[in-house]
Amino acid sequence: MNAALTTAIDRFTRAHADANGIARTCIPGMTLLRATGTQDVKYAIERPLICLVAQGAKHVTMGEISFTVGSGDSMVVSSNHPTLTRIVEAKQSEPYLSFSLRLDPALIADCITEMNTALSLADSATSQNTDHEVSDVALRMISLHDRPASLSPLRTLLVREMHHWLLAGRHGEAIARLGFPNSHTARIARAIDIIRAEFATAISIERLAGVAGMSASTFHHHFRAQTSLSPIQFQKQLRLIEARRLMLSKGQTSSAAAFAVGYASVQQFTRDYRRLFGLPPVRETEKARQASQSEV
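The structure assignment produced for this chain is given below.
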């Protein structure tokens, strides 16, 4: 990994990271992360993104696949997939440091059209060594924040360049699938956008299948193939993850959080929550708070 990139992430996160180690930036979709100790498992259904690990390591589970992303590696989440992550290598003197950027399917499509050479046919494994060109663009995206007057005219160009090098590099094949509007990946993504926006309400399979331009049975098959979940399970996990956030960051009770995310029964919410997170809501969130306080 580019040593200058590690230094840049370290400096930026020291100055701007919040209590959770997350540093937002002035470039939409770009986030830097800092952790000074190992952490419990984090649950999320990630949007498509690229993550570069500059220092430390994290363990990732996506469906039935598990792997470790270490210093100098990058990982791509090319579909809306339930993801469990745990930082496994981090300490005060050498914190875990990473760069992430959400991927833009429309921009990917534009870049594919402009590229005159064939995309990489390399193995589209989720974790790979980071290409030099990719780490170089990431460094320039961070450094751009030192020149606020240049952010507006240059940030869009750098995001575009990042997408270009990702397509041209090791992750090209996996990322390219996002850029074809009629691909199964893109069509399922349109349905997932609806589930994300309306997860607290009832959504019919027929409506989602119609948005994807598929029959209900075909939609169900391709949805599970991409996310490892049925549409109902996907929506349920979104509800549970949001409920956990409401309890941890907003201080809501488990019953209030359950109703806020669309549950009609607190008992059913408690059963589903325990099945996903391993403990009932009150005990699990208290454990998470204690772990967070111990890291401070």
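Interim note for the steering committee: The longest helix spans residues 148-168. Strands lie at 22-24, 30-35, 42-46, 49-55, 57-62, 65-70, 73-77, 81-89, 96-102, 127-129.
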